[in-house]
Amino acid sequence: MIKLCGFALSNYYNKVKFVLLEHGIEFEEVFVEPSQDEAILAHSPLGKVPYLQTEEGDLCESQCIVEYLAARFPDKRIFSADPWEAAKERELITFVDVHLELTARNLYKQAFFGGSVTEATKGRVEKLLAHHIAGFRRIAKFAPYLRGEQFSVADAAGYVSLPLVGMATQAVYGRDLLLDAGVDWKSYVKAINSRPAAQRVTEDRKAYIAASRPA
Question: What is the pLDDT of residue 214?
Answer without folding.
Answer: 72
